[in-house]
Amino acid sequence: MQHAVGVPLPPPHPPGPVGHVAGPPSPAHRPGGPPVARAQHPGAPLPQQPPPSPLHAVPSGPPPRDTTGHIPLPPGGPVAAPLPPTGPAPADTGATTLAVLLIGPAGAGKTSVARHWASQRRVATAHISLDDVREWVCSGFADPQTGWNDQSETQYRLARRTCGFSARNFLANGISCIIDDAVFPDRPVVGLGGWKRHVGPGLLPVVLLPGLEVVLERNARRTGNRRLSDEEVAAIHGRMAGWYGSGLPIIDNSGYDIPTTARVLDDVLARSIASPPTW
């Protein structure tokens, strides 16, 4: 039986007596319509109404704001800086809830390293790829191969805010996260400043910067819109060199494979917890 659109389903009826055969609802139970009086035999007891089902209970008051599941999202800058260890510096970060920003040019291996690092930790960790979130936009998609324009700027800003909210969501539920993005040192408001606003001051940035020859070789193996021209890769790599002298930890993974780079990343993060970088 179908009910009219917008009409709530009636609550389940209590089981009838033995031998009772379920049939179509009487007019008195017709959904959406006014109740219809039925004749009662003299002296017959009034029918007992079933108690309201909790499945159909109407919640009182508006739903709580800024909640995910049963855990409220913290307001403002939700990610506090990790507490430094009281004893010797830890050998790894496997038992610490962290928010990490992995910075690097196209072809640096950010996505592969971030995914491997997240999968090897002893605590739940999520990898958030900015490129993956950016590519959710199918209509009016700003292809990086066409260059930088207002549409690209808008798309990246939206993707960063979405990644920031996802990071806050994971962290509020006790799940670490690592975000990878090509953040330029000459755009502090959009880059690190934007990530600090989206995630919080406890975000730990690390730069992954192999040599130009390595980046060009890795970019050549890419396909689709993630493969850039050699000229653009070289220009991005040159701008990324501005991170030297910034105070952020930098990993040159030119001679490292993915597992080795992930181990070096964890060691760098352990030192960052003990002595957070100023940014």
* Uncertain stretches of 5 or more adjacent residues: 1-40, 52-59, 66-71, 73-87
Q: Provide the CATH superfamily of the domain at 92-271.
A: P-loop containing nucleotide triphosphate hydrolases
- The fraction of residues in strands falls at 5-15%
Please give the alpha-carbon distance between the first and last residues: 63 Å
Structural class: alpha/beta
What this model shows, in words?
With 279 residues, this protein is an alpha/beta fold. It is built from 7 helices and 7 strands. Strand 1 (67-68) and strand 2 form a beta hairpin. Mean pLDDT is 73; it is low at 1-40, 52-59, 66-71 and 73-87. The longest helix has 23 residues, at 150-172. It has a domain at 92-271: P-loop containing nucleotide triphosphate hydrolases (Rossmann fold), CATH 3.40.50.300. Helix 1 crosses helix 7, helix 3 crosses helix 4 and helix 5 runs antiparallel to helix 6 (230-240). The strands form 2 sheets. The protein has a 5-stranded parallel beta sheet with strand order 4-5-3-6-7, sandwiched between helices. Strands 1-2 form a two-stranded antiparallel ribbon.
Write the SSE topology.
Layout lengths: L66 E2 L2 E2 L26 E5 L6 H11 L4 E5 H5 L15 H23 L3 E6 L10 H7 L5 E5 L3 H9 L9 H11 L9 E2 L6 H17 L5
Parallel strand pairs: 3-5, 3-6, 4-5, 6-7
Antiparallel strand pairs: 1-2
Helix pairs in contact: 1-7, 3-4, 5-6
